[in-house]
UniProtKB/TrEMBL annotation:
Pfam families, sorted: Methyltransf_3 (PF01596)
Annotated EC: 2.1.1.6
One BP term from GO: catecholamine catabolic process
InterPro entries named in the record: SAM-dependent_MTases_sf, SAM_O-MeTrfase
Keyword set includes Coiled coil: no
Protein name: catechol O-methyltransferase
Family the UniProt entry places it in: Belongs to the class I-like SAM-binding methyltransferase superfamily. Cation-dependent O-methyltransferase family.
Superkingdom of the organism of origin: Eukaryota
Length: 241
């Protein structure tokens, strides 16, 4: 009888902990940016890394390999969004802001895109799949583990010919790219900048600069932090020359 009570309380305790982890805490933090990031990006990630002896990017790659069709970028995006909404949050631009990203890429129809921060290649796949033929995307990532996963995600989407993934820090590479592009520098009249996470975690200095500079026409697209209800948005800025 005693054992039965212990067993019942262990099972009950485990169920309660699971409910807290799976539903109660995520629901409680989903309107608060700081708490949401601490919960998803620190506590849950470390806990799952320890329990599964794998990393979040590795788990994202596994979800892609299991659920997405090779050579089909949209199925890769869908598999990552499904994983991150239902299993484990991750810092991709996500489905909601991703639609804004898609519409900006389609409107601008760029010949060259420079992306700063690849992570697992989610936004890279979104952007590259919308580029016109012969256009190319250079994406920079300074974390070699993320870059290794992103290469596989991009290859799974069949986009490796359109994407050049450069491993390194933007502060090191941007001056080198400027040299490579010569006097034209990186921006020319009409170039479009699109910045993510300008509200959460936030980029107040960037927003102040870009909105007050007479050299840019800037517009804010209100949305939500990926896979949550916390306000976040994208800032689109056109370089006026
Ligand atoms: C928010 S994540 C990018 C998400 C990605 N764009 C997406 O939507 O799928 C930011 C990434 O930028 C990388 N990063 C941060 N600072 C960087 C820098 N100075 N140079 C290159 N990569 C950087 C981080 O390692 C991280 O992978």
């Amino acid at each position: 009888m005693m054992w039965l009570i212990v067993l019942y309380s262990c099972t009950g305790g485990a169920a309660l902990l699971y409910a807290l982890y799976r539903w109660v805490i995520p629901a409680a933090v989903q309107y608060h940016g700081g708490l949401a990031l601490i919960w998803h990006d620190v506590i849950v990630e470390r806990m799952l890394d320890t329990l599964t002896q794998s990393t979040r990017p590795q788990r994202i790659l596994a979800a892609v390999q299991k659920n997405a069709t090779r050579g089909d970028p949209r199925s890769v995006v869908k598999a990552i969004d499904h994983f991150c909404r239902n299993k484990e949050w991750a810092m991709n631009v996500g489905d909601e802001k991703g639609c804004i990203l898609d519409s900006v890429v389609s409107e601008v129809n760029p010949a060259t895109v420079l992306e700063l921060g690849t992570y697992c290649g989610y936004s890279t796949v979104r952007i590259a799949s919308l580029l016109p033929p012969n256009a190319k995307l250079i994406t920079l990532e300074f974390n070699p583990d993320f870059a290794a996963i992103a290469r596989q995600v991009i290859a799974w989407a069949g986009l490796e010919d359109k994407v050049q993934l450069v491993e390194g820090a933007s502060g090191d590479w941007i001056p080198k790219m400027k040299e490579q592009f010569g006097e034209c520098s990186l921006l020319r009249k009409g170039s479009v900048l699109l910045a993510d996470n300008v509200i959460c975690p936030g980029a107040p200095e960037y927003l102040e600069f870009i909105r007050s500079s007479p050299r840019y026409k800037s517009q804010y697209f209100k949305s939500h932090l990926e896979y949550t209800k916390v306000e976040d948005g994208l800032e689109k800025s056109v370089f006026l020359g």
